[in-house]
Amino acid sequence: MSGRSAFLVTGADLAPQALALLKDYEIVYAGKTPSEDDIVALCRKHNPVAIIVRYSRIGAAAMDAAPDLKVISKHGSGTDTIDKAAAQARGIAVVAAVGANAAAVAEQALALLLACAKSIVSLNARMHAGHWDKATHKSVELDGRTVGVIGLGAIGQRFAKVADAMGMRVLGFDPYARICLRTCGTSRWKPSGESATRSRCIARSRRTTRSC
């Protein structure tokens, strides 16, 4: 123990910028794939004042093992891996870095969409097997195609902007979101329940599931 208050990170690393902000604290890493028991043991050993959640679940046992715990922060948007009822009962704040990974996830969604439309995986395998399918392969051009985005949070909006910039027609659906046209930078953006039936491609912003 260094004598400084501890931050427990349920992962193997943090960005240099984050470490600079936390320079006055002892940073404890749980590793790449910590179990709930691992988290409890580290809480018991280091008594952190805060937990930054990347992987694994944080339940009542971990909270009870760290009596100085004040806040649990999710490295991302979803807090479903944190027992929020247990935290509330113990006066522990639960927060999330909403939108922090929006660009990365939206870009990954776009990469998967392009890989699907251009048959990148199958063509890569064919090329490595000694085949050159230039004369016979016909890929899908996304310009002018309709893409449906289900879920219009930070990730969905980011994906929509990029798809619009590529010339795609974007239809979005989210029963909880209120979005003006300027939010996604396109006059073609229309939150609509028709996305699933009118779209060539469907993008679900909470999962990396793509259908083309």
Protein model, in words:
- This protein is of the alpha/beta class.
- It contains eight helices and ten strands.
- The chain has two domains: 6-96, Rossmann fold (3-Layer(aba) Sandwich), CATH 3.40.50.720; 102-211, 3-Layer(aba) Sandwich (Rossmann fold), CATH 3.40.50.
- The strands form two sheets. It has a five-stranded parallel β-sheet. A five-stranded mixed β-sheet has the order 8-7-6-9-10.
- A hairpin with a 5-residue loop joins strand 9 (201-204) and strand 10.
- The protein is elongated.
- Residues 185-193 and 205-212 have low confidence and may be disordered.
Provide a compact summary of the structure.
This protein is an alpha/beta fold.
The stretches of 5 or more residues where confidence is low (pLDDT under 50) are 185-193, 205-212
> Which geometry do the CA atoms define?
elongated
Main beta sheet, described? 5 strands, parallel
**How many separate domains make up the residues?**
2
| Gross CATH architecture of the largest domain | 3-Layer(aba) Sandwich
Q: What is the fold named in CATH at topology level of the largest domain? A: Rossmann fold
Could you give the order of strands across the largest sheet?
A: 2-1-3-4-5
SS summary, helix count? 8
**Structural class computed from helices and strand pairing:** alpha/beta
Distance between the termini: 53 Å
CATH class of the largest domain: Alpha Beta
Instruction: Name the CATH superfamily classification of the largest domain.
Output: NAD(P)-binding Rossmann-like Domain
Order of helices and strands: EHEHEHEHEHHEHEEHEE
Proportion of residues in extended strands: 15-25%
Helix content: 25-40%
Q: Strand tally, please?
A: 10
Mean pLDDT figure: 85
Q: How large, in whole angstroms, is the Cα Rg?
A: 22 Å
